[in-house]
């Protein structure tokens, strides 16, 4: 069991061994969940960089160039606009 203390401005200090064990770095973001007085602290992974890496991986696996991907996205956007808002002309 680990004890932490709330400081003057509401700050908590996580013990160094926990920061090392879970590779917690300065600036990392957490979500605090209140379960009726039981606090659960969970790390928040940066979603956008993870999604970008996954899209890049899938693009490479499919053998699609960045230019082809962008062209297809533009075409899809135009098709969506036309289907939902009519012909732009």
Describe the structure.
This protein is an alpha+beta fold and 89 residues long. The protein is elongated. The chain has 2 domains: 1-44, Ribbon (Pemi-like Protein 1, Chain: D); 47-85. The chain has a two-stranded antiparallel sheet with strand order 1-2. It has helices at residues 16-21, 47-62, 66-85; strands spanning 30-35, 38-43.
What's the topology here?
Elements (H helix, E strand, L loop, with lengths): L15 H6 L8 E6 L2 E6 L3 H16 L3 H20 L4
Shape: elongated
Oligomeric organization of the protein chains: single chain
Number of helices: 3
Beta-strand content: 5-15%
**What is the helical fraction, as a range of percent?**
40-55%
Features:
3 helices, two-stranded antiparallel ribbon, 89 residues, Pemi-like Protein 1, Chain: D, 2 domains
What's the short version?
This protein has helices at residues 16-21, 47-62, 66-85, and strands at residues 30-35, 38-43. It is an alpha+beta fold.
């Amino acid at each position: 069991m680990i004890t932490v203390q709330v400081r003057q401005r509401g700050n908590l200090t996580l013990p160094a061994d926990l920061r090392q064990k879970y590779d917690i770095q300065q600036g990392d973001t957490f979500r605090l969940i209140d379960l009726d007085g039981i606090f659960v602290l969970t790390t928040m992974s940066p979603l956008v960089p993870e999604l970008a890496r996954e899209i890049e991986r899938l693009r490479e696996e499919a053998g699609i160039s960045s230019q082809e991907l962008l062209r297809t996205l533009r075409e899809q956007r135009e098709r969506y606009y036309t289907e939902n808002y009519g012909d732009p002309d």
